[in-house]
Amino acid sequence: MHSPAGRSVFREFLRTEYSEENMLFWLACEELKAEANQHVVDEKARLIYEDYVSILSPKEVSLDSRVREGINKKMQEPSAHTFDDAQLQIYTLMHRDSYPRFLSSPTYRALLLRGSSQSSSEA
């Protein structure tokens, strides 16, 4: 998650599993946390809520009721950290569920082969 290139490949994998919204939500939360302007925070929080938390969203992420209720309360006065609990829950889901499958996927194996062949040709 720290490497833009790694996130890109993982995101492609998530797309094949129909769970790309988890990565998109995580990235949107990271952007929100970096924002200092309260008006922008309000707007970004509203968009994140509509895109990923609302039960009407086609990109809704899977959150437990406790986290969802907490977000609903925090949306009264959004902050850069409104979605911290939800972001952690989605990160944990990706870490425990999607990421292990990614590591055994043909996509990841091909990436490793490309990396090792580039290292061999540079030596």
User: What gross morphology would you assign?
Assistant: elongated
- Treating each run of at least 4 consecutive H or I residues as one helix, how many helices? 6
Binned strand content:
under 5%
Helix coverage percent: over 70%
Alpha-beta content class: mainly alpha
Oligomeric form: single chain
Organism: Mustela putorius furo (European domestic ferret)
Domain RGS: 1-112
InterPro entries: RGS, RGS_sf, RGS_subdom1/3, RGS_subdomain_2
Keywords: Signal transduction inhibitor
Compact overview of the structure:
This protein has helices at residues 4-16, 20-33, 38-53, 65-74, 84-103, 106-122. It is an all-alpha fold.
Model description:
By secondary structure, the protein is mainly α. Helices cover 73% and strands 0% of the residues. The protein is built from 6 helices and no strands. It has helices spanning 4-16, 20-33, 38-53, 65-74, 84-103, 106-122. It is elongated and about 50 Å long.
